[in-house]
Amino acid sequence: MNDPSPLYVGQLNTPDRDAARREFRTIFERRFYTNHGPLVAEFERRLADRLGVAHVICMTNGTVALMVGASAAGLTGDVITPAFTFPATVQALSFAGLNPVLADVSPQWHSMTPDTARAAMASTSSRVAAIAPVRMWGRFTGEEEKGFAALANELDAALMFDAAHALGAGEGDRLAGGGGLFEVFSFHATKVLNCAEGGCLTTNDDAFAAAVRTAANFHDRPDDVDVPLRINAKMSEAQAAMGLLGLDALESVLEANARRYAHYRDRLDGMPGIRFVDHADTLVSNHQYVVMEVEERFPISQAELMQHLHNDGIIARRYFYPGMHEAPPYNEQDWNVPVTDGLCNRVLQLPSGEMIANDDIDRVCRSIEAVATRRKA
Amino acid sequence: MNDPSPLYVGQLNTPDRDAARREFRTIFERRFYTNHGPLVAEFERRLADRLGVAHVICMTNGTVALMVGASAAGLTGDVITPAFTFPATVQALSFAGLNPVLADVSPQWHSMTPDTARAAMASTSSRVAAIAPVRMWGRFTGEEEKGFAALANELDAALMFDAAHALGAGEGDRLAGGGGLFEVFSFHATKVLNCAEGGCLTTNDDAFAAAVRTAANFHDRPDDVDVPLRINAKMSEAQAAMGLLGLDALESVLEANARRYAHYRDRLDGMPGIRFVDHADTLVSNHQYVVMEVEERFPISQAELMQHLHNDGIIARRYFYPGMHEAPPYNEQDWNVPVTDGLCNRVLQLPSGEMIANDDIDRVCRSIEAVATRRKA
After folding, report:
1. B250-372 CATH choice from 2.30.30.240, 3.50.50.60, 3.90.1150.10, 2.40.50.140
2. What pTM did the predictor assign?
């Protein structure tokens, strides 16, 4: 197994190169490179149509979109958000002037639930201004969304979803995008829809959409409204060109993701000491993430298995390591997040995306199997 | 004079299209789209060399670069910055958690000086943590920079320059980039060096550079250091590709800017009621901005002249309108900035950049002359 080409976690669903060349040529011909050009406008329209949401506001990346959204909502005080998430979630909320209160997550699905959010309120005596769940690994359940909405309503708090993982996830016709006051998506190179860098905010609230459009750039327009602060968060035309081509390819990307995921599941599900994290809780999944837990009874630890895989040229990654409860500046406080703590030491994310063929998946699984058959030290 | 093609203020110095196509092709072949790829690394090296500064850290845009820099500096308290500036300066400092104190500017050069910065301290009783001058219209004087450094030293405050306008401006070999703790530049489509969107932070401070590199992305690297907050501020490879081509063309862009500027000056300097704002205070200017003041004795006001020019298809712009002292949220306080107040009602910026030929400049000047000869109402 001396395959020389390393396998990475990152999804790279890249558009057809000739199509990209044609799109870039139109930008140069038009000489309209940024400041809400025609391609950004078209990308926003098509995304709104695809996601079934009234407003899509494209931005330079998903992290900045979350920061701008939280800031434009004009909130001050605490925001309840999971400790088990990519750092961007929590740090963007801090940049927006909110005070993150870290909640634990469900052991099965790895995501904050209405119950774990409520339990986190024991960590604060201040006002909860917002609840910011993460659609972890693209998880979407309408039932749970109702639970979050009820909690937000009870607390008079704003509800905002970090849906960076969740483009295309949903239940039947109802896709992530219309939850709470707003949701944000990422179009980073590693996502199913790739603008190299990019992201957007989605909302069904007309007044809030106007506030976000005002807050996300400095160009005075007749429909500007008062917002707490403004920043340059604009998406360029080149980013939108990539995004539009990505939208054209999205169905086939999702189908290929589902096939890869099924191949992984067939080989890993039931392997002793490995818990394959399935997406059964989400009716329509984008299958973007292939995630497993290295259980206590597995012969070696998560960190050791990661190193073993790296030695085999398989660049699996610990997610999320460290957890936000152990990362500065949030580690200055003690948080009661035992599930997160365990997951940070058990979860591995496996290579997926368009560069990973079934043979590659077999190679990954053989490498894991080679260790699984050892005796635990 | 029924020329149908409108003339815009924006500079659009675009790279050769074939060269751009070749650069984009290498990105697709390499499949490395963002996360500090080889083109960003090369762009940073070449910029550092060009500007004579130890560290260049490219980011998604100049506004975010200022926000990240001010945040990474770990400051709390007041920051003295001019009221006469693009909103991004002040709002980025607010997003970084600083409290802007608005200073007035020099009537001749339109920029905050060490004296106007010191005068602004009357508006605050809190600690001044930072001074953030703007290199307005690309202005650079080493003498004044020394004055700011002395004031910052006296107050134990950090000094940071918004040099968004000032790429290539300087005195002999000494160019903007190495002033204070850091400077930020913009590579917006309207700048002499154009990445569509883009910007960078420059510094000679090794420890601060490490802090900024840590703060500007979420990718753990061995040389990460503790920073207050992190955010995704990454520049993509496509942005860097545009920037590298822009660097190749920079000398010819600057020469063309100087020619356009001289042509404007020859026609406008001395026109009654018009004050052509020359760049004589800056030994090496990028001549990016063609700026004039509509004086009291001119037959019509700035706003009326702007409308007159628009009617002639000349999209001149008021800069900066409104001033930051009149824009939310800063207008909640009364500021003593009479010079700024006057400039906001006198300054017009005229069309320049690569799409403006001498004939276009003649057309602009004829349109102004047509009004100048009227009797004042």
Report:
1. 3.90.1150.10
2. 0.95
